[in-house]
Amino acid sequence: MSLIAANLEKVQKRIAAAAARSGRPEEEIQLVAVTKTQSVQTVLEGIEAGVKIIGENRVQEALTKHSQIGERVKWHLIGHLQKNKVKKALAIFEMIHSVDSLELVQEIDKQAAKLGKVIDILLQVNVSGELSKFGLAPEQTYRLAEQVSNLPNVNLCGLMTIPPLSSNPENSRPYFRVLAKLKQELTRQGLEGLKYLSMGMSNDFEVAIEEGANFVRVGSAIFGERNF
Ligand SMILES: *Cc1c(COP(=O)(O)O)cnc(C)c1O
After folding, report:
1. Whose CA is closest to 222, among 208, 203, 207, 209?
2. Cβ(155) to ligand 1 under 6 A?
3. What's the pTM?
4. 214 closest CA partner among 149, 153, 154, 157
5. Cys-Cys link to 172, which of 21, 46, 101, 204 (CB 3.0-4.6 A)?
């Protein structure tokens, strides 16, 4: 078994265990294998081992990989998206986890309409308020979500967050909890179709699952340290 296959199996077991601990069915949690900076060869090894969803944070890098790998996996954009890259992004990604402004989502809607597509998106929420992070303030989320619901070619289906970097996964728990509460609150206020919470990375995905994540975005625990 390759190292990547062995790592993937470990991660999947840990996902299953965290789901079991929280009384959730394992199938509820989807693994987004984050392949930024990794080679096509490495991505192919991951796919061979059973990866179903690829997460990339740069459009150009993803396009290059996609041209060699194609549609045998699903492609999710997890990194910041610039308006001028939207058209290219829509050619390959079926979900965008990182939407955080009206201008951006209007451009996504416009380009998706041209392609005759409806694209799934998540709103990225900056729960910690760190200035270095993209994302909406929690209190801005309702308004943008409402505006998105009027856009025919964009389907808002959940929320995403990235907590502050920490070596202790327990430090992420309060941020995950806030995101889960926010999703509940938006639903209570009448927003429909919020199904997903995208939260948890290599260091804290088990805590994220305990707090309700259904997409975990895991890179280095599967593919090893990144090449820069
Ligand atoms: C890089 C990245 C990940 C994965 O990080 P790891 O710590 O390697 O698991 C997850 N989400 C986003 C948005 C990322 O940019």
Report:
1. 203
2. no
3. 0.97
4. 157
5. 204
